[in-house]
Write a structure and sequence with these properties.
The chain has 114 residues and is mainly beta. The chain is built from one helix and six strands; from the N terminus they run E-E-E-E-H-E-E.
C-alpha cells in the first residue's frame, strides 16, 4: 500500500452489506461507515454528531464485510479515492470514497457504571 495515501477508520456499518458479483467474477461491496464524533460548543455543552464515509471493498475484504451485520463496529484500513461519473441526467458528479484493503470486527467499548 502507498504510505502516502493510507487511512484507518473505526466506526459502525450503516446498513447490512450486500455482496455483488460482477460479470468478470469479481466480488464487491459498498457500505456507509458511521463515525460518531463530538465536540464542546462555546457554551460548554457537548454536541454529538456522526460523520459518514462511503467505503468500497473488493475480493476477500468484500466477503469479510458482507458477513457482518448492520451496526457492527469495525476498523478498516485503505486508501482515499476520488472519481467522477455522469448521472442519468447528464450531470457530472464527484465522489470521494475509501477503498478498503483490510477490515476487522472489533468489540464495542463497555460502559462502566459509576
Amino acid at each position: 500500500m502507498n504510505a502516502k495515501n493510507h487511512i484507518t477508520l473505526t466506526g459502525n456499518l450503516g446498513a447490512t452489506p450486500e455482496l455483488k458479483t460482477l460479470a468478470s467474477g469479481d466480488v464487491v461491496t459498498t457500505i456507509s461507515l458511521a463515525i460518531d464524533m463530538g465536540y464542546t460548543d462555546k457554551d460548554g455543552k457537548r454536541v454529538e454528531c456522526t460523520e459518514w464515509h462511503r467505503v468500497v471493498a473488493w475480493g476477500r475484504t468484500a466477503e469479510i464485510i458482507a458477513s457482518m451485520d448492520k451496526g457492527a463496529r469495525v476498523q478498516l484500513t485503505g486508501q482515499l479515492r476520488s472519481r467522477s461519473y455522469t448521472d442519468s441526467e447528464g450531470t457530472t458528479r464527484f465522489i470521494t470514497e475509501v477503498k478498503a484493503n483490510n477490515v476487522m470486527k472489533i468489540a464495542r467499548r463497555l460502559k462502566v457504571a459509576a
